[in-house]
Automatic annotation (TrEMBL):
Lipid metabolism among keywords: no
Bias-annotated ranges (Polar residues): 138-150
UniProt GO MF annotations: 14-3-3 protein binding; GTPase activator activity
Species annotation: Pinctada imbricata (Atlantic pearl-oyster)
Role this protein plays: May act as a GTPase-activating protein for Rab family protein(s).
One Pfam family linked to the record: RabGAP-TBC
Regions of compositional bias (Basic and acidic residues) in chain numbering: 65-82
Keyword line: GTPase activation, Phosphoprotein
Residue segments, region Disordered: 55-86, 123-152
Ranges for domain Rab-GAP TBC: 211-437
Name of this chain's protein: Rab-GAP TBC domain-containing protein
Amino acid sequence: MNPRLQYGLLRVDKNRVRMAKDYYGYRPDIATDCYDTRTDRCGLLRHVIKPVYGAQHPPIQAMPKGEEKPRGNKRDAFHDFENNTSDAWDDGEDDLLYMANIQMSLKDVRSTAKAVIDNHSRSVNAHNNRLAPKGPQGQYTAIPSATSTHGAGPGVGIRLNSGWQPPKTTPIRFQKEQVPDREAAKLEKFRSVLAGPNTDLDELKKLSWSGIPRAVRPTAWKILSGYLPASMDRRDPTLQRKRNEYFGFIEQYYDTRHQELHQDTFRQILKDIPRMTSLAHLFQQKVVQEIFERILYIWAIRHPASGYVQGINDLVTPFFVVFLSEYIDNDVESENCDLSSLPEETLKIIEADSYWCTSKLLDGIQDNYTFAQPGIQMKVNALKELVKRIDVPLHRHLEEHGVEYLQFSFRWMNNLLMREIPLRCTIRLWDTYQSETNGFADFHLYMCAAFLVRFSKDIQREVDFQGILMYLQNLPTHHWRNEDIGELLAEAFKLKYMFADAPNHLSKKS
């Protein structure tokens, strides 16, 4: 057999594929369309990143290779890395034609493919075993950093855990657990504010900034997001009207998902939902997948300026989990409970409320998802200017090694850090975002800056482009709790206090 066929015609460096796929936030073992060998010669891997466009908007055509402008004499570390890695296009056209004409039996094809997959699995497992010692039950543990207490050393992919297994199935618990004494006083304050005939929004935001107790979080989020009115008398009629309106949209629009005009949008939604890693076990349940399919498709149809864009699917999850907690006491992040056993009416309520609150959130950041995603581009540039002023050594280190802020922070802006921190931390973070004016847009910038600087020393220990980017895409946050988020929020608030009222400090100087 021709040796080129032993590797499926492609010899692509695994780290390059992992960086490109990790950039989009998908697990490397299940992402299948991040590297398209049928289109561009170097595809996503030429620039590491590439903006994601809605199904209604094709990506901007890449500049032909011959027209690329050199960036001065400065060495491009990623291009050097790319040039040292061969792929199928390095072979001559005659060789490819020859390979295309080789007659192979189906048995040979299957056996070759199985051998390649088995060999790849063995090499990945061996690599992970070398990097991380095993802890209890075969789970990989982080290698401690010499300079930080974050729980892992630079370049160690905490989330690249090939031994992951879904949690064991647990029955749904409807009985609420008792509130710890330390939260009882805070909970009482929330209930007092929410029980009034007209909720004082300023007081509610003040209380919510430092975190909302689980028992009142669903109601507080609905009010803070603008879904529920402050008036107690108007809440029940509003809920009934909005829920009926949502299911009216389902009846009106959902049957169009297979029409030629919308089938690309719906096909992308179907691809993205099973890839959602924040609750991988939950999104394998058919009832949950169908809920998210309807929410995302209806939102896309009603917002043609952006349509559906990869990343929006993640933003539904916190609302879904919080509103689910109103009916069950299970921790769905660590427990695998069968939601199909819930009453259908309960699931409908959770679905409708999740849709409306997600819509309210996206209304404030929709320029992140319109054509060319200008909102994200501006936020990334602002992050660069901010870090340049608050951590000069870190900024210089990234610049010297050719690391562009867009290459790692695009996902931070597109997914609101959901791919970087555990879901429990995202929910705590959103307590504060919803308490801030334009929290998901403006305050998120300062949170990203504080998040990056948190790992400054470890990033500076990486001495090449690949090490820096791999570390930034696999930050050791899997063990984080609310206390860690609280520390970052305090740092973000200080940055906002220093820079929000002085925007000229972030403008480029000629």
